[in-house]
Amino acid sequence: xxxxxxxxxxxxxxxxxxxxxxxxxxxxxxxxxxxxxxxxxxxxxxxxxxxxxxxxxxxxxxxxxxxxxxxxxxxxxxxxxxxxxxxxxxxxxxxxxxxxxxxxxxxxxxxxxxxxxxxxxxxxxxxxxxxxxxxxxxxxxxxxxxxxxxxxxxxxxxxxxxxxxxxxxxxxxxxxxxxxxxxxxxxxxxxxxxxxxxxxxxxxxxxxxxxxxxxxxxxxxxxxxxxxxxxxxxxxxxxxxxxxxxxxxxxxxxxxxxxxxxxxxxxxxxxxxx
Length: 274
What we know:
Blueprint: H1 2-31, E1 34-39, H2 45-54, E2 59-62, H3 66-74, H4 79-84, E3 92-97, H5 101-110, E4 113-115, E5 127-129, E6 132-133, H6 141-147, E7 152-155, E8 158-161, E9 165-168, H7 176-184, E10 190-192, E11 195-201, E12 206-209, H8 215-235, H9 244-273
Helix pairs in contact: 1-3
């Protein structure tokens, strides 16, 4: 009899907590400009706490049971939110903010930390060893390099990698030998943080999937675009900060050319008169 009372009390407590969580989520949905669903799988709890501190005043992170979160999204009364809820998984965190989704995604990207490669992990990018010296003296480490097919030699009493070696291709699994070698070399090829599954912009009423902010790649693309546009801008005489030095140099060269031609013409005329 006593056990039944405890069970009823426990179930009531769980139910109350779920209702409280649902209400909190629905309230945030109604007052937020952007909502992001992200993976928290393999994310250490201490990093999640650090991220919460970093986002304080900018965003709130909710971690609740899938059933509770999904139910809250369904009862929000917003069709786009219901659709967004389909992307919630058991390993999802919900982030609410008044920042736009792209700004928030950029903050999350900057919050990622380097992570070691684990055996069996699928690599999202190519991992390779660069040619050059290491800090290891000749010994057991030579066989560690040999296991992954890396060619080595001895330079100034240290093991040196003779030529670059691709250890893992994009989409391949990390082998145990590769994971062990990278760990000993203290190479952390991956990043750990909140990976975005889906994002919602309340102002635009749009859902974004695969929202990835890669600042390094974007910067390289912008540099490439600038390099390809610059010659055309100079050619048409478009004046801006990037072209002014080229245009001034061009004008100076043209002025020198005109002066030289004028001087040559004067000399020719004098020669004829004589």
